[in-house]
Amino acid sequence: MDSVFQYLQDIKSKKGAGYIVLIDPDKKNDDSLINQVETANNSGVDALFVGGSLMMDSHHHDRVAQIKKHSEIPTIFFPGGVNQINNQYDAMLFMSLLSGRNPQYLIGEQVVAAPIVNDMGMEVIPTGYLLFDGGAHSTVEVISGTKPLPMNRPDIAVAHALAAEYMGKKLIYLEAGSGAIEAISTDIIRSIASETNVPLIVGGGIKTPKAAQERVEAGASFIVTGTVLEDNGDSNLMKKFADAVHGG
Ligand code: 1GP
């Protein structure tokens, strides 16, 4: 593989869009972690994102090692903070929380992380992260101390996405927050996709394959699901999501 970013671009051009499963290496998922990774290996999932905003015990790095050991697809660090960096990953989203006005998450964490990442030689994918109001106070909203963007203002959303593009971001993550009541609206996705050229990752509160497919049709390049797969009785759900995202 040339690079994980190239791999993601190839997925987009070959399949139309990519399906990514978010695995939160937190205590609450301890029992289901390996099962989630093995199901992803066998369900047509294109990559894993690994990360979370809050860790409720000290075993984060052990769980990441387990995930990496079992994963047969690219495992990408989705950082909640500099304390979560380790050298297990194939690449990381080097994110800046551009929807917020908290300097710690715009540049502070990044400056602390950069020399560590450089020393590890990890691939970085510059990513603009835009948090929207998905109707539930998300953990990232609380931890980052930032206000999410309103879901009913495509003009504000487009302005942020254009700024991300002009700042050189290679991906833009439209986030409704893990466990959101409302996923990113198709209006917001359509508005941003028509004004920018950066591939859009869309996640937060996507609960059905149909909702995923609608977001791809609106212009999403990558769909992320996490919560809906945790403790889910339907062992085929990941495959159903993958098929929907890939236009099956
Ligand atoms: C959160 O976008 C991801 O960062 C996934 O959200 O857990 O709601 O699927 P869900």
Task: Characterise the protein shown here.
This protein has 248 residues and is of the alpha/beta class. It has a single domain, classed as TIM Barrel (Alpha-Beta Barrel), CATH 3.20.20. It is 40% helix and 17% strand. The chain has 9 helices and 8 strands. It has an 8-stranded parallel β-barrel, surrounded by 7 helices. Helix 6 packs across helix 7 and helix 8 packs parallel to helix 9 (237-245). It starts with a helix and ends with a helix. Bound molecules: SN-glycerol-1-phosphate. SN-glycerol-1-phosphate binds at residues 22, 175, 178-180, 203-206, 224-228. Residues 22, 175, 178-180, 203-206, 224-228 line the site of SN-glycerol-1-phosphate.
Mean pLDDT: 96
Which percent range fits the helix content? 25-40%
Give the end-to-end Cα distance, rounded to a whole number of Å: 26 Å
- So what's the overall shape? globular
Compressed to H and E, one letter per element, the order equals: HEHEHEEHEHHEHEHEH
- Under the CATH scheme, which architecture would be assigned? Alpha-Beta Barrel
